[in-house]
Structure formats: C-alpha cells, structure tokens
C-alpha cells in the first residue's frame, strides 16, 4: 500500500477558466499569472497547457522565468518583482524576459548596464497599496530616463496592483483606479505606453480598471474571487483536488483524547479515522477542530492538532467507513476557501502551499 496523498490537477479546468477570463475582459490582453509553482498546480505543466492560449505569462521571481525558458516555454514572461543583479539583468535581456522596475535600485541597474538585446520594462506605480512601486512624480521621472535609454524597449507598460480587489464594496478600489487614471492621463501624449491594473477579482468587478493588460491569477485555478458569494463563482472550476486516504480507524471512548498535546477530547463514544496527510504536505497546521474534509463524499470534521504527516477526523456519524477510503481535503467538491476559513487563512495560501513531496497527477 503506497502513500496516496496527491494533488489532482485538472488542466482543462485551468484552460477553461482562462477562456472565461478572456470573456470577462475581451478588450484586454490577459497574462496568465503562474507564480509560486502556478499557485501550487505545477509551473511547467500549467505553462505548457496554457501556452497556446495566452499572450504572456507572469511570475513573481526571476528563477521561475528561467525555469520556464529552460523547459522550452517561448511566450513572453514578466517577472513581477524584477531583478536586482547585473547577471540576472543580462540573462533577462538575452532570454527575452520582461522586467518590472519598482524601486530606484532596479532603475539604476537597467540605466547603467548597456545590453545587446533590448530590455522590456514594466514600470510599477504605487496607487495606494504601499508595497511596491514609485509615486506619481518619481514614476514620471523614471519613465523619462527609460525612454531615453537605448537598450530599453520603446514600449513600456505602467502597472499597479489593488490592495482590496476581493472586497467588492471597498471604496479603496475606486481610489486606486482614480490614482492610476491620473497618471494615465498625464501620460496621454506619450507614444508606446500601455497600462495594466486588474488582477482576477478586478477583472470581474471593476471593468473600468481593465486596460491594455490584465493579470489574472487565482481565477485560473478556479477559486471564488470575492469575500462573499458572487455570480462568477459558478463560472469557474476548481483545478486542484487535494486528496488523501484513511490509514487508521479506531473507537475512542468518551473522555479519551486524540493526538498531540491531547488536542481533542471525545465528548461521546466516537469513531476516529487517521488520514495520511499533514502539515509537511501543506495541510495547514492552524486548521481547527471541525475543519471540514470529505470522506467518500460526506463531510466530516478534523479533530485535534494537525501532525506533520497525519490528521485525525471524526467519522462517528458516517456509516461504512473503512481503511483505504479516499478523503478530499479541498477541491472540486469542497472549496479551498471554506477550508481556509477554519485555518485563519485564504484559499490562495492553501493551494500554493501544497508541498513538493505531494505528487501532482495531471488530467488533460
Ligand atoms: C499575484 C499577482 C497577481 C494575480 O492576482 P490574483 O488575485 O491571483 O488574480 C497580479 N498582479 C500582481 C502584481 C501579483 O502579485
């Protein structure tokens, strides 16, 4: 009996979700964001599957872009955090990897190091998130310098990022759109400038933020986009099902404890199943007693503390449970966002944290 903890990745769902993104934002180019191992779904497999459909890919860090090039991906790739060394800059220009410039050091790096191949730059504006990017004034100055630089591509994209896009009624969203538009209008006279603001939830709820490029991530993987239910939920298909199997089953009498630190005490005579998944697989250690899992398609609750390689669940009320039965931790039938709410986190965190030791099984 070999271990049966695995992530089933439905690549056709990722493709269909991408097509849905295109329907929602038909006038923009939608770049597939596949950072963090494609949010846990497998960087290379996801990229190969999407490559015929997408205009470009976005990753967080330079190493991810190189991994894509090394595996034969030819489409344009944007590094959302850019680079900070001369070596990486040289490789990026050779391998046609687009670079974000979000701070003065990155600007200096590009301006002071002549390249044989043109460098494509996305210049980041801070519209209120206060995480990365230049303010309006510094961005205008940076743009002037970049426009004069011979080894920087003529076409420059101005980008920014929402802090609260998943909160549909948060006024900050419109404030950020206004700040972005102020810079956009100030640059209206300039040729060869494009704009990019929206991530997944904004594509759906802020159509006035869909400019030349959007950057959908989470929607490709099919998780609901907003903090509350939304009509878009029905049009996206979860791409990852994280599953495991029961490897132990026992009766626990009322008053007895289960797991590390006597993390759970039986209030009644109970039937407890042990499942071969733990925090070393990316199951969240913060998951509380009662966190839902599906046993043979029926909801059961986690009990006690998540171990490194195991969890315990209460199956007292589920008939016909046996060792070997499948357990869905999240996926097509149990929304990762719901599980996340029991672990003080968000669906993004769960799916992108499924660890390297969990095999990915790809369905086309
Ligand atoms: C991760 C990321 C995205 C994608 O966001 P989603 O909410 O997953 O769609 C877009 N832009 C930037 C800058 C990001 O870091």
Tell me what you see in this structure.
- There is one protein chain.
- This protein has 364 residues and is α/β, with parallel strands linked by helices.
- The chain has 2 domains: 214 residues, Alpha-Beta Barrel (TIM Barrel), CATH 3.20.20; 124 residues, Lyase, Ornithine Decarboxylase, Chain A, domain 1 (Beta Barrel).
- Helix content is 27%, strand content 23%.
- The strands form 4 sheets. It has a 7-stranded parallel β-sheet.
- Strand 16 and strand 17 form a beta hairpin.
- Helix 1 packs across helix 3.
- The protein is elongated and about 75 Å long.
- The two termini are 27 Å apart.
- The structure holds pyridoxal-5'-phosphate.
- The site of pyridoxal-5'-phosphate (PLP) has 10 residues, from loops.
- Pyridoxal-5'-phosphate binds next to loops.
CATH class of the largest domain: Alpha Beta
Q: Which architecture name of the largest domain does CATH use?
A: Alpha-Beta Barrel
What's the CATH topology label of the largest domain?
A: TIM Barrel
What string gives the helices and strands in order? EHEEHHEHEHEHEHEHEHEEEEEEEEEHHE
Arithmetic mean of pLDDT? 98
Widest beta sheet: strand line-up: 3-4-5-6-7-8-9
Structural class based on helices, strands and sheet pairing: alpha/beta
User: What fraction of the residues are assigned to beta strands by DSSP?
Assistant: 15-25%
Helix content bin: 25-40%
Number of domains: 2
Bound molecules: pyridoxal-5'-phosphate
Low-confidence stretches: none
């Amino acid at each position: 009996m070999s271990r049966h903890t695995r992530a089933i990745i439905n690549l056709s769902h990722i493709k269909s979700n991408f097509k849905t993104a295109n329907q929602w934002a038909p006038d923009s180019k939608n770049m597939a964001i596949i950072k963090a191992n494609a949010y846990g779904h497998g960087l290379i497999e996801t990229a190969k599957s999407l490559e015929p459909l997408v205009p470009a890919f976005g990753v967080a860090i330079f190493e991810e872009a190189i991994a894509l090039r090394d595996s034969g991906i030819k489409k344009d790739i944007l590094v959302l955090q850019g680079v900070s060394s001369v070596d990486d800059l040289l490789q990026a220009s050779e391998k046609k990897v687009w670079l974000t410039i979000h701070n003065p050091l990155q600007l200096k790096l590009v301006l002071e190091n002549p390249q044989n191949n043109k460098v494509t730059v996305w210049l980041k504006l801070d519209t209120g998130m206060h995480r990365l990017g230049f303010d309006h004034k510094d961005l205008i100055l940076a743009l002037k310098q970049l426009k004069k630089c011979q080894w920087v591509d003529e076409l420059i994209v101005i980008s920014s990022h929402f802090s609260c896009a998943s909160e549909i009624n948060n006024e900050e969203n419109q404030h950020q759109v206004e700040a972005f538009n102020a810079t956009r209008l100030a640059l209206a006279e300039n040729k060869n400038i494009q704009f990019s603001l929206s991530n997944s939830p904004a594509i759906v709820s802020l159509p006035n933020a869909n400019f030349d490029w959007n950057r959908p991530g989470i929607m490709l993987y099919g998780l609901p986009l907003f903090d509350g239910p939304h009509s878009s939920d029905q049009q996206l298909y979860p791409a990852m099902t994280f599953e495991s199997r029961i490897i132990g089953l026992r009766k626990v009498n009322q008053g007895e404890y289960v797991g590390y630190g006597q993390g759970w005490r039986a209030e009644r005579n109970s039937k407890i199943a042990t499942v071969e998944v733990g925090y070393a697989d990316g199951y969240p250690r913060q998951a509380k007693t009662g966190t839902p899992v599906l046993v043979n398609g029926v909801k059961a609750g986690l009990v006690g503390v998540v171990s490194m390689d195991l969890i315990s669940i209460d199956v007292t009320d589920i008939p016909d449970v046996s060792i070997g039965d499948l357990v869905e931790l999240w996926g097509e039938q149990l929304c990762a966002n719901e599980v996340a709410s029991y672990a003080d986190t968000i669906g993004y965190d769960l799916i992108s944290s499924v660890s390297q030791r969990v095999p990915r099984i790809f369905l086309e």
